[in-house]
Design goal:
Helix content is about 40%, strand content about 15%. By secondary structure, it is of the alpha/beta class.
Length: about 725
């Protein structure tokens, strides 16, 4: 009853900034009184979080006052100040805007939750990175797919992205973790989200999903993402007119705004899925009808959604690079550039960003064609290409930064195509990665996310909850670390340990915190040693490239493979050439194997104690299972690297004991793989990943066994006849 009453009060109509309404939440023996601008939706959300934390932790023992106000003159946007009040006892939170005040209130809620209210320090807080975002490839409809829709997680999430319940939960989680940017990526979203007066029949009613069982035969360029047979057997997952869809997305953007979150749409080009050739629209770059259609669609997108913060564009995989009347950049300007300009012509003063990705283009062409949009133009760069879990200081952006004009900024696309299934959590790595990002004078912000897995509701748990859990809630610790540290990288490890302790009070927090961090170091270590730039070339959860399972990387591949550029790690062939000068080698393959083994064994040792306790809660069981699985994966990679090193030595020296050592290491690798597969498949189902194929760890096991046979049959001198693997090929930045 009390909770319902409080919610009713906080849902009161929105009042302008500066409104002052005081409310008290009372319960014996103490009470919490809220003062200030509490009807602002951002502050109301923070108050609701404080109430939930108080209810979960027990009522306060004495009266507590929380005052939340906005003062634009003393603090920047998103900034806030926390001050202690003595009479009456409590806290005064002043925000530079409603979002800053919300963040201050969330600090109070967290302090209550982790029993640290008495330790909450006074002081000012300002965002280290101003825009901290999520990259969400969004599966709108079989007729308007994202880049990755031929995968199980995307198909499972088509109904979810049309649910207000989903977005409320998702956006609340973003705000809790201090993310303030949501980027929605789709090949061609317009038919599902706008009505274009010049092309009215393109707008799509209802939400469709194919019943056809998909496979891994789809193009990785998005060009056959909608096949005729997919449209012949469909289910209507939700009945909606285009006007209802527009109302839906306006609501989502308003809710995001009320949580301090900006929303952007990103597209690849030229895709026309959903138009069905109506009005003569085609994917031909020189088709004037297509240019007219895209320009009008962009105009209507900006006009229809006043809260849309910007549009991101790509000179993408379907532009056609041959000789045409229009160059790719000319086409992008005449469609997106002119469309945005048309919309903003009657919206003077509206803040808007046009974000041009560096992908498959060059800087000089962008600057020439988009000269008239320089005031709203920003760039975007694949910061770690597809692997944020590799090294914390990726080198790839340096040429772009050197060429960018003074005053212009770039976003970082921080791709996570490393960890789909497991709960990651290493604050030291996240903090170092964030601190190594370009200076804030060149950085517009970042958005983080995968291409190959949908960050909606999880779809792989063997006995998933109903409704299925948000990926962001399952992997809450990872999202918390990246969001909180990008706002404030000075947050200490002890702060995160206390958060873990409050979440999992059944086990010693220091042991769980340490085991979690150690297990999480497995993925960066292996990816800096064995590099494949895009997700098609390296999926570390399965030691493979596309297509699964035939794309499994063998021990021979590990000998021929490359290390990550800029990592300072020698590959096996380089190490063989330098091993006689070991003192000059910074990091070689055996050092990587040692670190993998060390972190894996530390995890397993700590887990032995943690798992010996009486643990009934499913989330903690699953978390410990994730850490155990990843530890065995780390031990697998450690033994595989050692086996590859010994086999390479045998290739050069021909000593039988070297081959025998390789075989023994690969037997140990197989044993660790079997443990990894057993634990993982006890928690997660095999799944179709659009960029890799159908991944079933049991099906991969015979390929792991073949490594032993490869070593047993190896002949000295074999490497002279082999060429190194090609593990790069993503389109680089071109000045």
């Amino acid at each position: 009853m009390l909770r319902t009453l409080v919610s009713t009060v906080l849902m009161a109509p929105f009042l302008a900034w500066g409104c002052s309404v005081d409310r008290m939440w009372a319960a014996e023996p103490g009470s919490i009184e809220f003062r200030g601008d509490i009807r602002l939706p951002q502050i109301a959300f923070a108050i609701d979080e404080i109430l939930q934390a108080a209810l979960a932790s027990g009522t306060p023992q004495a009266r507590l006052v929380v005052e939340c106000r906005v003062d634009q003159n003393s603090l920047p946007p998103q900034g806030y100040r926390i001050e202690r009040m003595e009479s009456p006892a409590g806290f005064r939170i002043t925000g530079g805007d409603p979002t800053g005040a919300m963040y201050g209130g969330l600090d109070i809620a967290e302090a209550i939750r982790i029993h640290a209210l008495g330790d909450l320090a006074e002081g000012e807080h300002r965002p280290y990175i101003k825009r901290r975002g999520i990259k969400f490839n969004i599966p709108l409809d079989v007729r308007t797919p994202s880049y990755s829709d031929n995968g199980d997680s995307f198909q499972a999430n088509i109904p979810e992205v049309w649910s207000t319940t989903f977005w409320h939960e998702f956006l609340d989680e973003m705000a809790r973790h201090r993310y303030n940017v949501l980027t929605l990526w789709n090949l061609h979203p317009f038919p599902s989200i706008v009505r274009v007066p010049e092309f009215p029949d393109v707008a799509l009613n209802d939400v469709w999903r194919t019943r056809l069982r998909l496979d891994d035969s789809f193009s990785h360029t998005g060009r056959d993402m909608v096949r005729p047979e997919m449209l012949q057997d469909v289910e209507i997952v939700r009945r909606m007119t285009i006007d209802e869809k527009i109302a839906f997305w306006r609501h989502v953007m308003q809710y995001a705004h009320d949580r301090g979150i900006e929303v952007y749409w990103f597209t690849w080009n030229i895709f026309v899925w959903g138009t069905d050739g109506k009005y003569g629209i085609t994917a031909d770059r020189d088709n004037p009808v297509t240019v007219q259609y895209f320009r009008a669609s962009v105009r209507e997108l900006v006009r229809t959604y006043p809260l849309l913060a910007g549009i991101g564009i790509t000179a993408g995989e379907s532009m056609g690079r041959g000789n045409k009347r229009l160059t790719p950049e000319q086409w992008l300007w005449q469609t997106y550039g002119e469309g945005v300009r048309d919309a903003l012509a009657d919206q003077r003063g509206r803040s808007f960003r046009l974000i041009h990705r560096f992908h498959m283009t060059n800087l000089s062409d962008i600057l020439r064609e988009f000269y008239e949009a320089r005031d709203i133009l920003e760039f975007s760069f694949k910061y770690s290409i597809a692997h944020m879990y590799s090294i914390p200081n990726p080198p790839f952006i340096k040429p772009a930064l050197e060429q960018m004009p003074a005053g212009m900024k770039t976003w970082l696309t921080v791709r996570n195509d490393d960890v789909y299934s497991f709960r990651w959590g290493d604050p030291d790595y996240a903090r170092e990665y964030i601190l190594n990002m370009p200076g804030r004078d060149r950085l517009a912000g970042f958005y983080m996310g995968p291409d190959g897995y949908c960050w909606g509701r999880e779809a792989i748990d063997v006995d998933g909850e109903v409704p299925r859990q948000l990926v962001m809630k399952k992997q809450w610790y990872s999202f918390l670390l990246w969001g909180r540290l990008s706002y404030d990288p000075a947050l200490s490890n002890d702060h995160f340990r206390r958060i873990v302790e409050a979440r999992f009070s059944e086990v010693p927090s220091e042991k769980l915190f340490t085991a979690w961090a150690a297990a999480s170091r497995v993925f960066p270590l292996i990816t800096r040693f064995f590099w494949g730039d895009i997700d098609l070339r390296w999926f570390p959860e399965a030691c493979m490239r596309y297509p699964a399972p035939r794309g499994f990387y063998t021990v021979k591949d590990f000998i021929l493979g490359q290390t990550m550029p800029g990592s300072g790690v020698l590959n096996i062939r380089e190490w063989l050439n330098h091993k006689d000068h070991a003192e000059q080698i910074a990091v070689g393959p055996l050092e990587i194997a040692r670190d993998l083994e060390s972190n894996a064994q530390k995890t397993l040792t700590l887990l032995a104690d943690l798992k010996s306790r009486d643990i009934a809660r499913r989330e903690l069981q699953r978390t410990l299972g994730d850490l155990e699985a990843v530890a065995y994966l780390g031990k697998y990679y450690a033994e595989k690297i050692r086996g590859a090193v010994r086999l390479a030595e045998f290739d050069r020296d021909g000593q039988p004991e070297q081959k025998q050592a390789a075989v023994e290491h690969l037997h140990k690798a197989l044993e660790n793989w079997q443990n990894y597969a057993r634990i993982t498949l006890s928690q997660y189902k095999p799944q179709l990943l659009n960029r890799i194929g159908y991944v079933d760890l049991h099906e991969i096991t015979p390929y792991v066994e073949k490594d032993i046979a490869i070593a047993q049959q190896w002949k000295p001198g074999t490497l002279k006849e082999l060429t190194p693997l090609r593990q790069t090929g993503d389109v680089p930045f071109r000045p």
